[in-house]
Amino acid sequence: MTLFNFAYGQITVSGTVTDKDDNSPLIGVTVSVVGTNSGTITDIDGSYSLSVPGPDTKLAYSYTGYGSQEVTVGQQTRIDVAMLAGADLDEIVVIGYGTVKKSDVTGAVSSVSAADYEDQPLTRLEDALQGRAAGVSVAKSNGQPGSNFKVRIRGVNSITGNNSPLIVVDGIQGVDLSTLNPNDIQTIDVLKDASATAIYGVRGSNGVIIVTTKRGSGQGKVNLEYFVTSAAVPEFLPTLQDNVGDFARLENLRRVNAGGNPNFTDAEIAALEANGGTNWQREIFQTGIGQNLLGSVSGSEGKINYFVSGVFRDQEGIVINTGFKQLSLRSNIDAQINNKLKVGLNVFVNRDQTQNDFSFAGNGQGSLVAKALTWDPTTPVFADDGTYNLRSLRGIGSLNDNPVRTLMESDAQRVREQLSTALVLGWDITDDISYTLNAGTRLNNINNQVYDVEVGDDFLPHTNFNNNKFQSYQVSHILSWGKSFGNNDLKLTGVQEYLKETSIVNGWSAQDLSLPRGYYFAELAPGAGQTVSNNFSERELSSYMLRGEYVMGDKLFVTATGRYDGTSVFRADNRWGFFPSLAVGYSLNDLIGGSGPLSSMKVRLGWGQVGNQNIGPYSTFGGLRTNASYSFDFNSAQTGTVLNSFESADLTWETTTQTNVGLDIGILEGRGSFTIEYFSKKTTDLLLATPVPGTFGGGIINQNVGEVTNNGIDLSLSYAIVNTTNFDWDASFNASYVKNEVTQLYNDLEQINGLFTSPGGQSRVLNIIELGQPLGQFQGSTFLGTWKTAEAAQAAEFGAQPGDPKYLRDANGDIVFGSIGNGTPDFVWGFNNSFTFKNFDLNIFIQGMHGFDVYNIQQAMITGGAGDSRSFLSADQVNQWTPQNETDIPATVQFYNSSRYIEKGDFIRLSNLNLGYNFGQIGSTDMNLKVYASGQNLLLITDYSGYDPELSSRKGGQGIEDVAPGINLGAYPNPRTYTFGLKLGF
């Protein structure tokens, strides 16, 4: 697998690299030509192939956890190397448009190799990053197969823009991380500070994740893996759906307290207790079975190296009639044209389909999980005639549609079809100068088609269709020059790059279909409404980058970068921005001597700036809304056109300035390594969509206003704890602490309301952006318990009575609404342990998140909320306030958004436990077999009362997720999964 700029000669050397103790192949060993930028990486069988200048060439072999070796080629064409365990700092790191030895790195880079997660059966690459890369926070949005992950690097910068990092796969930028096959990945390198991310300019403002896929070499090899999964909800939430008699009695009491009559007779309650009710959790949840088949073919024929892989996944969801299917293919072909020229062609094709993503039913009244939790347990799923009971038979509990009917009869499909290609040409012009052309294109076609039986009182289905065609192409010209002057090495890299992206969106919707026979057979009822929508946008980015790398005697390391970016989203006068960075490293090896427990030490200091252009392509122009109504005479409305967004011709770059200080330590001759970094990041001139007062017509205007800071510490430690003939124990620990703060808003405001509103008809804003606080602030009232009998007179002043909820009030007697919690974690960590004993291997991976709250609106909905979920279904409601038992559990309706529903979200999770047995070579065949069993999400330690504190749910059009994290309106639960699989290689 070739990673670097090449200096090809006339000798091709191949071989295998193995562990000296047990002769097992080592995957991902870096094999480099000493004194040049040429190199390769061993494949899954430990094989490699590399062209070298001549017999005097020295090859260096380096691998995390093993001691490095150097071998002179001489007349050998095959060199097999056995490596001893013992780590050092000389593995190769991809830093963008090139590579560097880890010992020469000056910026903040975290690396994850395939070996770090090979014992965890993954279906998503994001799982490989979670807890394994310091400074990277990875959180699941929900547990539905195919759902999104939120990946953030060193905090959150923007209030209204996208905070996701740039994904670069084999040099092609903007790739969707969720589509990648983890088995295709050789290494993942995360660029975190400005001195590293400035290489990619404006696209690197939120950090960069560089993914290098596998290449083929040596003798042809076939690898197959098949594993089956069984997933289920770890445990059901305790509700009164399990105690239907208590539910009925509390419902009677609720109605009497409200001035009504009881809903159930004593005889009906007795019958309910005898026969049981409907537990809607058990009705909508199931055991989801998944099948995963992965395969690859790799090797070389003459001067052509190949790696071809494919994956098929079919995963049932743990909610009925939900699931995910994926089929993807990858082909990486490299051809050595002559001793100066090499050409590579990478092709990736993916198609995936999500069945009944929860967003199709909307979250106006909470998700379908929330609706199931609040549904009337005295109403069966089906009527006596076998048809669905559409609503509660007694008009209690949730007044929404039957959630089982909604899930089983609706058909919401999201289909993604993606094609990514890249042509890579490497030309060694001279011994010192090389040129690389990287030209690629990405085509994404996303179809959403929804047939929804839930909407409206008429129970007639509604449909909508949306198609997003996205295409981009990128051309990168990379010219490198490198020269050694005695003990001084100098390398210059220049880049000229052009990128264009185009998006075309078309859609329509129809309401009140009279023939609910399916999506393609429906007809509109007379007078039913239908709408058509479409949109077109494009953006262009032109860039120039120059990077200089200087090494003096393996002691002083300097990297300076300047990038000049021009974007089409700004007006001509503000279109171009220059973003510099400088990083310095200094080796302290002479100071520590190298003979004690510390074998190496290096300090690093970096500073840099990156820009952000993350606004819509036409955001500097005003926008119009047609068919608006206005009454000039206050009697009759006139139809016309109004402004809904205003021109902002002076809009320019959002800028993030970051400083990084790091210390790298090698332990016991490379047996372990330790890195600690402090960073300070400040984002100014935020690209913020600010509201326009109604006196000026309302709407929004984009402005460069506001500031956000992120300060924190990244820490990583790895160590080969035990290294014997039959038993090894390797451990790694990664942690990151980030303090986020909004340091400036606009117009001297101290806070601005978010866009996330509560369900159930209350329409109260649940989140705010507050000066001096982190992004992710919750807004609500402060719950003080219940009014007690002794406080009856005081309660009456506010129209309340004993047993009603009691809230903090101001001097005027009004309930105070303000910040009551925050959903942004400030500390994340992961602890990975790999054990081997003879042919057995065991992996234990634990991760945690701390320092955040969850706004558990789901719990509020089952605790006597308002709107369409008015009944008490919380299990603790049996201990509600009574004159004889004056608890702090209200006996009447209360606000959804109050501090009563703020819970600590801190958790520790046993993410993976995997036990495998390697049979090795089977008989006289060349086939290798491994079997394994594993469990994911086996144990969750938390005080949170919901399914999982990591999950959240959002309604569409209510702002970005980073200003409203940790709000749960009934998120799809995170399953507990058991996996059984086998791997074949021959």
Automatic annotation (TrEMBL):
Entry membrane topology: Multi-pass membrane protein
InterPro entries per record: Beta-barrel_TonB_sf (IPR036942), CarboxyPept-like_regulatory (IPR008969), Plug_dom (IPR012910), Plug_dom_sf (IPR037066), TonB-dep_OMP_SusC/RagA (IPR023996), TonB-dep_OMP_SusC/RagA_CS (IPR023997), TonB-dep_rcpt-like (IPR039426)
Domain TonB-dependent receptor plug: 102-208
PROSITE patterns: TONB_DEPENDENT_REC_3 (PS52016)
Transmembrane segments: none
The name this protein goes by in its record: TonB-linked outer membrane protein, SusC/RagA family
Keywords: Cell outer membrane, Membrane, Transmembrane, Transmembrane beta strand, Transport
Lineage of source species: Bacteria, Pseudomonadati, Bacteroidota, Saprospiria, Saprospirales
